[in-house]
C-alpha cells in the first residue's frame, strides 16, 4: 500500500489540484516515455508527498521552477549538477528519469554512467568539468566549504554561477528526500530507454 495514497479528484483542494497541474507541466517537457504515474494513477517521485503538505507545495514548485529556469547555467550544466547528487543519493525514481534525460540533453551513455558513479566524465569542456566537480563536492559537503574549493571553482565560474550550482544541488537533495520517503517502485524502463547502473558505493 502506498504511504501517500492518491487523493480522489473530488476531494482535492485547489492547492492539491495545483500539485497535479504543476507535475503535468514538468512532464510535458520531458521525453514522453518517462512515466509519471503508476498503474493506479499514483504520482511517482517527490510529487505524492507534496499532496500532503498543500500549504508548502505551491511555494515548492515556484522555487523549483525558478531554480531550474535560471539562465546562468546551461541545460547540460544543470544536468551535471543533478547527476552529481545522484552519485551520492540513492533515489531510484530520480535515477530512472535522469538516466534518460541526461542522454536527451546531449551526454553520451558513457558520460552519464561515469557521472552517476561519481567520476568526472571525459570530454567535458572546462566549465562543465568545474560545474560537475563543484556539484560533487557540495553533494558530499557536511561542513563549511574550504577556500581552496571555492577558488578552484572561481577559475571558470562567476560567484552567481557558484550559487546557482548550490541551488540545484540542494534542490535535488530535497527532491531525493521527498522521493525516498514515499518509497514507491520504479517503472520498468522500456527497451529504447537508457537506464544507467547505480553507483556501487551507495
Automatic annotation (TrEMBL):
Residues 55-119 form the Carboxymuconolactone decarboxylase-like domain. One of its GO terms (molecular function) is peroxiredoxin activity. Coiled coil: none annotated. Transmembrane segments: none annotated. It holds the Pfam family CMD. This is Carboxymuconolactone decarboxylase-like domain-containing protein. It comes from Trematosphaeria pertusa. The lineage of its organism: Eukaryota, Fungi, Dikarya, Ascomycota, Pezizomycotina.
